[in-house]
């Protein structure tokens, strides 16, 4: 426990404690490098009392915050590299000591003592400047403070990397980007961009869980395999150029038999 044996009177007013004042006066004189006339201390001027108060306060602070005294005279400021005087208040941060006026944001120069600050490559930053250095999420525009997902050459919050159509999360799953580099889940991409079947008008896309699908192209049109059949009798047509294949007539998809029937009328 620190010694704080002074009476409340002493604390309130130094003039009520003459003995104490005398000793302190000498200390003040030494500090200021002044010499008094012989004959001992005379009455104190108001300025001297103020100096004294200040000195006492500093002493008390030193007792209350012993770490302030840890500043060795040889230690220098981490910013200006000038020595830190013992009596000078200093900031201990980032494993170094700084003059209070030297402990400033690396970017905007505002003083950081007593403030929240962030360390970036060993330099202190104020909160605002630190946030400015962070990459922004391509979806929500907010800085990414925690985990970052990088995809399509851009940065995202993991929860913000979603399908632009259905907004399902795409982290850890397959996705496809469109011409504008916007991510889509696989089903939505195909729904939007896959060629459509000229018979049923549905997109021709892989079944769920499958990578590929067969698209039949005939007469400059697209068909699902299952939709590629004779327009007249509904017979499924082979994609091979054989007897079971397509025998088109006037742009119609027909089997060989129905082709012949139409051709005769
Ligand atoms: Zn400094
Ligand atoms: Zn700043
Ligand atoms: Zn975001
Ligand atoms: Zn989707
Ligand atoms: Zn179809
Ligand atoms: Zn037919």
Automatic annotation (TrEMBL):
<dbReference type="GO" id="GO:0007179">
    <property type="term" value="P:transforming growth factor beta receptor signaling pathway"/>
</dbReference>
<keyword id="KW-0539">Nucleus</keyword>
<feature type="domain" description="LIM zinc-binding">
    <location>
        <begin position="135"/>
        <end position="195"/>
    </location>
</feature>
<dbReference type="GO" id="GO:0046872">
    <property type="term" value="F:metal ion binding"/>
</dbReference>
<keyword id="KW-0965">Cell junction</keyword>
<keyword id="KW-0130">Cell adhesion</keyword>
<feature type="domain" description="LIM zinc-binding">
    <location>
        <begin position="196"/>
        <end position="265"/>
    </location>
</feature>
<keyword id="KW-0677">Repeat</keyword>
<dbReference type="GO" id="GO:0007160">
    <property type="term" value="P:cell-matrix adhesion"/>
</dbReference>
<dbReference type="GO" id="GO:0005737">
    <property type="term" value="C:cytoplasm"/>
</dbReference>
<dbReference type="InterPro" id="IPR001781">
    <property type="entry name" value="Znf_LIM"/>
</dbReference>
<dbReference type="GO" id="GO:0005634">
    <property type="term" value="C:nucleus"/>
</dbReference>
<dbReference type="Pfam" id="PF00412">
    <property type="entry name" value="LIM"/>
</dbReference>
<dbReference type="GO" id="GO:0007229">
    <property type="term" value="P:integrin-mediated signaling pathway"/>
</dbReference>
<keyword id="KW-0440">LIM domain</keyword>
<feature type="region of interest" description="Disordered">
    <location>
        <begin position="1"/>
        <end position="44"/>
    </location>
</feature>
<keyword id="KW-0862">Zinc</keyword>
<comment type="function">
    <text>Adhesion plaque protein. Binds alpha-actinin and the CRP protein. Important for targeting TES and ENA/VASP family members to focal adhesions and for the formation of actin-rich structures. May be a component of a signal transduction pathway that mediates adhesion-stimulated changes in gene expression.</text>
</comment>
<dbReference type="GO" id="GO:0005925">
    <property type="term" value="C:focal adhesion"/>
</dbReference>
<keyword id="KW-0206">Cytoskeleton</keyword>
<feature type="compositionally biased region" description="Basic and acidic residues">
    <location>
        <begin position="1"/>
        <end position="12"/>
    </location>
</feature>
<dbReference type="GO" id="GO:0001725">
    <property type="term" value="C:stress fiber"/>
</dbReference>
<keyword id="KW-0479">Metal-binding</keyword>
<comment type="similarity">
    <text>Belongs to the zyxin/ajuba family.</text>
</comment>
<feature type="domain" description="LIM zinc-binding">
    <location>
        <begin position="75"/>
        <end position="134"/>
    </location>
</feature>
<protein>
    <recommendedName>
        <fullName>Zyxin</fullName>
    </recommendedName>
</protein>
<keyword id="KW-0963">Cytoplasm</keyword>
């Amino acid at each position: 426990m620190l010694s704080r044996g002074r009476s409340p009177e002493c604390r309130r007013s130094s003039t009520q404690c003459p003995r104490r004042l005398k000793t302190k006066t000498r200390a003040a004189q030494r500090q200021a490098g002044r010499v008094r006339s012989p004959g001992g201390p005379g009455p104190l001027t108001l300025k001297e009392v103020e100096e004294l108060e200040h000195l006492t306060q500093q002493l008390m602070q030193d007792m209350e915050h012993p770490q302030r005294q840890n500043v060795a005279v040889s230690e220098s400021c981490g910013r200006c590299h000038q020595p830190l005087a013992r009596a000078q208040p200093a900031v201990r941060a980032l494993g170094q000591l700084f003059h209070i006026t030297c402990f400033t944001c690396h970017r905007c120069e505002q003083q950081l003592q007593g403030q929240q600050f962030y360390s970036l490559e060993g330099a202190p930053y104020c909160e605002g400047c630190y946030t400015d250095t962070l990459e922004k999420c391509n979806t929500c525009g907010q800085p990414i403070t925690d985990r970052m997902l990088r995809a399509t050459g851009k940065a995202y919050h993991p929860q913000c990397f979603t399908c632009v159509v259905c907004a399902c999360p795409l982290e850890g799953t397959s996705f496809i980007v469109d011409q504008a580099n916007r991510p889509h889940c696989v089903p939505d991409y195909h729904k939007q961009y896959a060629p459509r079947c000229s018979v049923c008008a549905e997109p021709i896309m892989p079944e769920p869980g499958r990578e590929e699908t067969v698209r039949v192209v005939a007469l400059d049109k697209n068909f699902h395999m299952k939709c590629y059949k004779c327009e007249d009798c509904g017979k499924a047509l082979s994609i091979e150029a054989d007897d079971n294949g397509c025998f088109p007539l006037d742009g119609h998809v027909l089997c060989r038999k129905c082709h012949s029937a139409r051709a005769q009328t």
